[in-house]
Amino acid sequence: MNLDKPLDDIIGEKRKSRAPRRSRPAGGARKPSTGNVNNNNNGAAAAAPAPAVSGSVHVGDKIIVSGLPTDVNEAQVRELFQTTVGPLRSCVLTYDARGQFKGTATVHFRKAEHATKAYTEYNKRVVDGSGS
């Protein structure tokens, strides 16, 4: 790859060189995705209410928690969900390029039903009671 070109040209060449994508079979025969409080079918409580979720209950074992206060740490998120919902595979907080917490965590449960329970119990709810 020649890096002496503008980024737009490099991206354009990559797109042209890709093989055509296969289309999905009719009827949506793809693996169910996991999501978050922001209408991707999973979710959990945040410090502030989340946007309204439309559609049916999710399928998956991950949730994305948003609107968390910047002073929350991974241990606190992990403890909340392990003690009130069930065992976790992982809990990952999101940070920006400067290393500041963005107020979002991805919680991966061992069982999909635990993610469903977390969504049901915590979606659009204030967890810490302070409202901020």
TrEMBL record:
PROSITE patterns: RRM (PS50102). Residues 1-52 are annotated as: Disordered. This is RRM domain-containing protein. One of its GO terms (cellular component) is nucleus. Residues 15-24 have a biased composition (Basic residues). Gene3D superfamilies: 3.30.70.330. InterPro entries: ALYREF_mRNA_export, Nucleotide-bd_a/b_plait_sf, RBD_domain_sf, RRM_dom. Residues 1-14 have a biased composition (Basic and acidic residues). Keywords: RNA-binding.
